[in-house]
């Protein structure tokens, strides 16, 4: 036999592609610039667009009168090669960031791209290798990146946080933030505040102990960690069994990006369900700080106040979704939160005082919350092996996907899911990395619907609703053009009149929406970008569409140039 | 069922699942031998995988690394057909083309612990059996562990 042919050395896949390899350097994005993000609507500088989580764009080129002419400007296909974790549950959930014509967006399976926001050209690509066997409750997903200090920050499925050079995509630092053997992962979009990167944990369905971390943006060194389940003796520990191990696996993960008030220097972090999700018998007490909004001092990580939306949760009612900050006409600093439990809360964001609570869904059977905030559970899995049906189901009246607030109309637009579920308590032992639910759960395959609800947060009045055959499982966004954009599970991207709810335009994207659209402009042309791709925890929020087409394409729309 | 762990290789052979075009069309994934990477003093790991003639599999089929880090892999194609390998790697997967009777290398970086798969992404090599596993053992660094007492594992 002759000598082997020399095959050389393996090369990066990108080398065999048209990927340019670099993005133009942009102006530095720092804390002050993100604080003032509303003053540069051509960019979408941070996860929610602004720290307050309003998801509002003051761009007004696209209006009620011309939105019918909206058309795709370009499409980016994420694609995949080889085997990947959660091979059947990947979903394009991100919220694209745009800085001076460069879009930074993450996708499933550790992928991150810089794209030309005007043309869709792929400028650079990074892929963090994700183990096939990480514990993922809710699919192979990532909700986005943070951009600043010349870097792009991304959390990974195997619980790392990486900082990439914003112009090349090359790794600057990489820190192991969590323990994959303990069922931890990271799916959240990081938040850049001051010189820190804020990243919360995922892993609530595996009995991890939820936490929020702040890392040095330059080095990756951890500045502080705030556990959301107290140890014995710490404030809140009285809400857990004295002599038990429950707190060690208590949940309260922080898998959605917090909002932030720069004047108060408080992060508003929503926390996840207690573990086990449905078996409260092993964790008597209110189980702080699960299912809460926790106001965290950004400088120290200390908890300033909290408000628990569902004490002693037995329905998987995470409260991780956003806490939208807005001010009342009298100047009172408020926050709004549409919880999984079907109730809409308005709190004073300086101290957590309840201002108003009211239901925002049609069907609530799990319990009742009085106008004063008194919680009365009614229907819950209690007896071993006995099925119990309740509304809303474990994905909630609204899941993590985000509502938006339009300061012109004064309305908050809530994507609503009307889906129930049946849980049957089945107690099990805790073992690291194994799902720790304490029940068998089947979400309803019929009798579901959804709507966008336009609510006045100052009165609780629903001004209009746009009803849909299927629940709303994607974030919406509202603009100064008087519009609300909303993706549907069946692939339509629709534009609604922000004042009336009338549908003015729609485009079929070919796969369902489970992401957060963003709005920006380049060279005076307004765009709206929306990642699509039906996936994630479908069996939780809409199993009636488990058979729908998957996908992972990013659509960008604009008005015709001529 | 009378299967035991000890006789799995014999059972796979008897059932015609460990080769090409026997009971199945291709080779069932996850079969094949287990190998271990060697570690240099600097922590870099080395290993060799090869494609035997007409087997359409990587040998060893499962490569175990003691920890995450840098792996210098030698890939040998002893087959009389052309294949390739697309390998996981932090930053960007790597690809190497392996014509008949070829030998090459790949330097890759992976986090541990966890399991990664790689394959020959030409035709349906991956489905026929040319899908290998890289398994990384160990624990995450102490600073990344949760502040709680040791917990039971399966």
From TrEMBL, chain A:
Gene3D superfamilies according to UniProt: Quinoprotein alcohol dehydrogenase-like superfamily
Pfam families, alphabetized: PQQ (PF01011)
Alphabetically ordered keywords of this record: Metal-binding, Oxidoreductase
Record domain Pyrrolo-quinoline quinone repeat: where: 44-355, 471-528
Stored SMART domains: PQQ
Cofactor dependence: pyrroloquinoline quinone
GO CC list: membrane
A single GO molecular function term of this UniProt record: oxidoreductase activity, acting on CH-OH group of donors
Source taxon at top rank: Bacteria
Residue ranges crossing the lipid bilayer per the database entry: none
UniProt-listed InterPro entries: PQQ_b-propeller_rpt, PQQ_MeOH/EtOH_DH, PQQ_rpt_dom, Quinoprotein_ADH-like_sf
SUPFAM superfamilies tied to this protein: Quinoprotein alcohol dehydrogenase-like
Family, similarity comment: Belongs to the bacterial PQQ dehydrogenase family.
Protein name, as recorded: Alcohol dehydrogenase
Lineage: Bacteria, Bacillati, Actinomycetota, Actinomycetes, Pseudonocardiales
Automatic annotation (TrEMBL), chain B:
Recorded superkingdom: Bacteria
Gene3D superfamilies reported in the protein's UniProt record: Cupredoxins - blue copper proteins (2.60.40.420)
Name of this chain's protein: Multicopper oxidase
Species the sequence originates in: Pseudonocardia hydrocarbonoxydans
């Amino acid at each position: 036999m002759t000598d082997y042919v020399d095959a050389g050395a393996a090369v990066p896949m990108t080398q065999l592609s048209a990927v340019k390899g670099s993005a133009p350097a942009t102006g530095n994005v720092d804390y002050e610039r993100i604080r003032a993000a509303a003053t540069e609507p051509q960019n979408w500088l941070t996860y929610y667009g602004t720290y307050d989580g309003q998801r509002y764009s003051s761009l007004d080129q696209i209006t009620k009168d011309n939105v019918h002419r909206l058309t795709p400007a370009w499409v980016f296909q994420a694609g995949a090669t080889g085997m990947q974790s959660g091979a059947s549950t990947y979903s394009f959930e991100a919220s694209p960031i745009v800085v001076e014509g460069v879009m930074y967006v993450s996708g499933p399976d550790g992928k991150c791209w810089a794209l030309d926001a005007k043309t869709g050209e792929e400028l650079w690509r990074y892929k963090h290798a994700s183990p096939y066997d990480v514990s993922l409750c809710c699919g192979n997903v990532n909700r986005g990146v943070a951009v600043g200090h010349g870097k792009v920050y991304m959390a990974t499925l195997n619980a790392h946080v990486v900082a990439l050079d914003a112009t090349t995509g090359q790794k600057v630092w990489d820190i192991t933030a969590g323990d994959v053997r303990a069922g931890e992962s990271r799916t959240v979009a990081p938040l850049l505040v001051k010189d820190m990167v804020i990243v919360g944990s995922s892993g609530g369905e595996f009995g991890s102990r939820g936490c929020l971390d702040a890392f040095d943006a330059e080095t990756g060194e951890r500045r502080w960690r705030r556990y959301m389940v107290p140890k014995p003796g710490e404030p809140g520990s009285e809400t857990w069994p004295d002599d038990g191990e429950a707190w060690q696996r208590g949940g309260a993960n922080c898998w959605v990006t917090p909002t932030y008030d720069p004047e108060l220097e408080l992060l508003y972090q929503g926390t996840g369900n207690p573990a086990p999700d449905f078996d409260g018998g092993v964790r008597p007490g209110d189980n702080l700080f699960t299912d809460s909004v926790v106001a965290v001092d950004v400088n120290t990580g200390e908890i300033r106040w909290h408000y628990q939306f569902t004490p002693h949760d037995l329905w998987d009612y995470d409260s991780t979704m956003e806490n939208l900050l807005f001010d009342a006409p009298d100047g009172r600093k408020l926050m709004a939160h549409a919880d999984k439990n079907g109730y809409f809360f308005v709190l004073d964001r300086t101290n957590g005082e309840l201002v108003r609570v009211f239901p925002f869904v049609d069907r609530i059977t799990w319990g009742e919350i009085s106008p004063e905030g008194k919680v009365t559970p009614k229907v819950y899995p209690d007896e071993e092996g006995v099925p119990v049906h309740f509304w809303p189901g474990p994905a909630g009246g609204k899941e993590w996907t985000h509502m938006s607030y339009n300061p012109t109309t004064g309305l908050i637009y809530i994507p609503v899911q009307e889906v129930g579920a049946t849980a049957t308590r089945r107690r099990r032992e805790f073992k690291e990395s194994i799902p720790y639910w304490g029940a068998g759960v089947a979400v309803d395959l019929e009798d579901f619907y959804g709507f966008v609800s336009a609510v006045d947060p100052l009165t609780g009045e629903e001004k209009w609703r746009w009803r849909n055959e299927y629940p709303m499982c994607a974030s919406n966004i509202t603009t100064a053009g008087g519009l609300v954009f909303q993706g549907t599970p069946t692939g339509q991207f629709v534009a609604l009149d922000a004042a009336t709810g009338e549908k003015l335009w729609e485009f079929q994207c070919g796969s369902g929406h489970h992401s957060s659209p963003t709005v920006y402009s380049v060279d005076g042309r307004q765009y709206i970008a929306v990642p699509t791709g039906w996936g994630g925890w479908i069996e939780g929020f809409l199993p009636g569409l488990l058979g729908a087409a998957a996908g992972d394409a990013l659509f960008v729309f604009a008005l015709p140039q001529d | 069922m009378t299967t035991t762990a000890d006789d799995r290789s014999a059972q796979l052979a008897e059932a015609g699942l460990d080769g090409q075009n026997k009971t199945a069309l291709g080779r069932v994934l996850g079969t094949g031998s287990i190998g271990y990477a060697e570690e240099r003093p600097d922590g870099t790991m080395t290993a060799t995988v090869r494609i035997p003639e007409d087997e359409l599999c990587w040998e060893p089929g499962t490569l175990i690394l003691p920890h995450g880090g840098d792996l210098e892999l030698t890939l040998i194609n002893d087959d009389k057909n052309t294949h390739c390998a697309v390998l996981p790697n932090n930053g960007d997967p790597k690809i190497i083309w392996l014509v008949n009777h070829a030998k090459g290398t790949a330097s890759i970086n992976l986090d541990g612990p966890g399991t990664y798969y790689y394959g020959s992404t030409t035709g349906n090599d991956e489905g026929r059996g040319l899908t290998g596993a890289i398994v990384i053992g160990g624990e995450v660094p102490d600073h990344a562990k949760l502040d709680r007492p040791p917990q039971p594992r399966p």
